[in-house]
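---------- Forwarded message ----------

FYI, see the Response regulator record below. Original note from H. follows.
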Amino acid sequence: MTPTQAPHRVLLVEDDTRLANLILDYLKLNGMHVEIERRGDTVLSRLITYQPDIILLDIMLPGMDGLSLCEKLPEYFAGPILLMSALGSSEDQIRGLELGADDYVVKPVDPALLVARINNLLRRQQQQQPASSHCLSFGKLSIDPHTQAIHLGSSDIDLTSHEFELLWLLASQAGQVLSRQYIYHYLLNIDFDGKDRKIDVRISRLRKKLGDSLDTPFRIKTVWGQGYLFAPGAWNN
C-alpha cells in the first residue's frame, strides 16, 4: 500500500472472539481497515453502513451459516468473498466455490498466508475491468461492459460480477481457444495447478444461465486438452 492509497476495507464475519481479534490485529498491522461482524444474519444490513472491499466469511455462524450467506451475497456485494472454515474436505471447498466464493482457506490459517490471499483477490478485482468500451453482440446475445447487462433475445440474464468477468474474457476473444492457464492468469493471477476447479464451476454456471447444454455444450465449448472456446455463431436461436 502506498502512502496515498486508501487502506483496503475488510469485513470479517467470525463469531470466535479470540480468533477474530487475532486476525483483526494482524490485518491492521498490514495496513488494512477491519470491522468485525459476529452473526451471519446481520451481515447484509451491515453492508449498508460499511462498504468493504472484501469479505472474510466463516462458515459456522449463528443466525445464518456462511454457505447460505455466500449464496445471497452476490446480490448485494460485488467484491471478493473469502471463505474460512475448519471444514477442509474437497466437497466442502467445492460447495463453497459453487455458491460464489472466490477462495477458501482452512482454519487454522497462517496469518501471512491469509494476507497474501486477500491481496491476491483484491489485485484480481482491480485487473478485471473490461479493456473495451464497446458492447459485444453475437446473434441474440448482447453484452454491455459498462452496466454488466446481459440480454439474450427478450431475456435479461442475471450474472454475478465474477461470472460476467469470465464471460467478457471469453466473448472478447470469440472463436479462440483460451487455455485454463491463460484464464487463471488473467482472472485469478495464479497458475493453473491441474486440480483447481474454480473456473470449471463458473463455466458450468455460465452455461446454465445462457441456455447452453451441460452435456454437449455448443455455446461455450470445451476443447479437450486445450481449454474453452466461445462460439460466436451459436447465439442466433
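H. also flagged this: The longest strand covers residues 9-13.
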